[in-house]
Amino acid sequence: MMSPESAGPITNYNYGLPSEWRKPLLRQSLDNKVYRVARKIKKVGQDDPRRIVHGLKVGLAITLASLLLFYIEPFNKLFHQGQNGIWAIMTIVLIFEFSVGATLGKGLNRMAATSLAAALGVGIHNIAFRSTRNNNAGQAVVIGFFVFTTGAICTFMRFIPALKPYDYGLMIFILTFSMVSVSSYGPEDFETVVRDRILSIIIGSVIAIVVCICICPVWNGEDLQNLIAKNIEKLGNFLEGFKGEYFHKGEYFPNSEDGQSLDNKPFLKGYKSVLTSKSSEETMANLARWEWQYRFGFKHPWKQYVKVGALTRECAYKIEALNSYFNFEFQAPYEFRSKIQGQCTQICSETGKALKELASAVKTMTKPTSVNIHIEKSKVASLKLKLLLDMILLEDYNLREITPPAAVALILIDVVPCIEKIANAVHELAYLSHFKTPDSIVSP
Amino acid sequence: MMSPESAGPITNYNYGLPSEWRKPLLRQSLDNKVYRVARKIKKVGQDDPRRIVHGLKVGLAITLASLLLFYIEPFNKLFHQGQNGIWAIMTIVLIFEFSVGATLGKGLNRMAATSLAAALGVGIHNIAFRSTRNNNAGQAVVIGFFVFTTGAICTFMRFIPALKPYDYGLMIFILTFSMVSVSSYGPEDFETVVRDRILSIIIGSVIAIVVCICICPVWNGEDLQNLIAKNIEKLGNFLEGFKGEYFHKGEYFPNSEDGQSLDNKPFLKGYKSVLTSKSSEETMANLARWEWQYRFGFKHPWKQYVKVGALTRECAYKIEALNSYFNFEFQAPYEFRSKIQGQCTQICSETGKALKELASAVKTMTKPTSVNIHIEKSKVASLKLKLLLDMILLEDYNLREITPPAAVALILIDVVPCIEKIANAVHELAYLSHFKTPDSIVSP
Predict the structure, then answer these.
(1) pTM (global) more than 0.95
(2) Which residues of A touch B93 (CB under 8 A)?
(3) B129/A contact by beta carbon, under 8 A
(4) Most buried of A151, B183, B222, B290 (most Cβ within 10 A)?
């Protein structure tokens, strides 16, 4: 009998095939893996082609800075020490972000914090050097004290919410201040080195900002606008789709959310992403504040976008509740549902239309015109539905069966003021950011 | 008549008070402002005292590196060029994060990426230098080509989801590679400088990681655990509070969420934060993966925490739907509500208890013991409630009035399987991460 050891390690076991047969199989599986990875990478680019452009932009900015500061006259003579140009490259890599807002925010923070911290660092250097001229230990204590205090205080300050936009600046402040104070114990031409590095960092920041803005810029403001508009649209899609799915059907509803019939309707799932979009909306709004010169002018009401987003999310929670009524094990007899169907369908379609118009208004920055009409119509339908619910006689029904459609009706009644709040917030946004009046009103 | 101009600028207008009276007022308002700002800053520290400790830790790490590399023998003789020590300080400021996971992740990324990129950069330098010995333009083209390609490809790679944990490493790779390739056109002792800088960066990383871990460490894993436990507990608090608020009351419910009586019950609002905690949970889980040596051992199932968190959020959406029934303008007569009150209260209190036990199980890493009993009890109550709903005769009721409590009952029935899913996920977590068996079982 063959012992397990004598059979050799399992990795050498050749499945009874000659080795020249195995190689292609192995290669094939490797090819498959490479192919799958390649497809995934391709998908990253396809999902948002701006990512590829961003890569090329960063490459371009670094190359530009390299050639400029090291190879091209007279820029390569700009600095007293040849190696200071690398600070420009470092700056570009650290501050070049996907969007203009983030790049501008980091760039301005970096330039301001570096200059300020370097000036202070040179001051501390002079104090330490003069007060303890030939005393090495004394210098170490003085500089150690300042570095520790600045590091500790500035790091703590990064937690203060009001200073969040200057977070990067605070970090750079600690970095530069410590580096300058400490390196003070070095060469004679200290102040020249510091000045050259600041100059280099400013050149790097300017190159990054210019490339970021001039070549296919990605505006955070625009992305935020599109996100808010898309989220509102998704709710509209749900409401318009819901009426068809819930009321026009027979007795059958799938028991599980994974059921075939609901999976084939993406508009019923789209709103799910609205539920969790809070943090990305807030990040975008914070970054958009750096984009002054974007088409909105200096003081664009980014907070109002966040408010519209929050109201949209409030409404999405109600829609999540509506969605849960697809999954109830018992459903009311069609005869009962058909009683409330008319007004419910009316609410769904009017609120759906209102939301879609609001979405297109936010997206195109045009004043919404017929939203109020749709909302008034949905209010009327909601009033009628209330009266209808009061009038239905309940003798013949089972409470458990009729509760889901009745609850759907109540939620729909509850959705109407929600939509009205969104509409009001969008109207306020239209006023604050001077949305244009649509052409259709002007044209005959 | 006095012209507006002759009255002087508005800022000089003294409100009819002599100037010595005004000064204290101004100072008082300034004092008030300073006081308010100081109070806000104090609150940042009070909310999480670990922030103050973090500030001190960063200060300590920078001071340590400064003193070590610039003032203390024999470390200050470590480098051939005196200024390379500043790279250690820069590294500390850039990688020292609040939590151990983030610091470790950044530190390891930084060390690996710097070493790799520097080696490649030196290689490129040699190629460029040898192939185009005295041709400046040729060198510029070769180096420009490599810098551009590396910058573009690595920047694009940062968008690939699978590479997210190495995002910082990719950035540092671009940075170091560009800096090394470009600065190759510089001093003779090129390779020594590169080696010294890598050494300096490694020293900086090690100091940051050691200080971060050894002094009051903040473990992401622990924070994630606490967050998940707290979220589960919040849902439990809501359910236990809900039964008292919804069923034990008379006819009156406040119409608005801002109403006085609901604002005084924080447990009814606590769950709101669960709705939007997705991104922080995922970030924490990603960072926690770097904390191998934390008390959980090498392969802790962080993904399972995210799963529990997601199920908790699913349940929170249902609770948001329950919460909306506080705000309905019509409420069922107490007589109707009292019919379903018993079983609804039972479900609320059993699921509440189950959730609270699950929360404490996650928090203390102890196997939950009586959760299944509570869930079984709530299932029985849910069955009884279904039968009850089937039996209630509806002749005397108005549909609009009875729908809210009936819908509440249906949602509560729907909450039970939700809680069961959470319990199963926590049981799986307990198995995967070897939760300890509670003492109460062992003790008599």
Answers:
(1) no
(2) 151, 171, 174-175, 178
(3) no
(4) A151
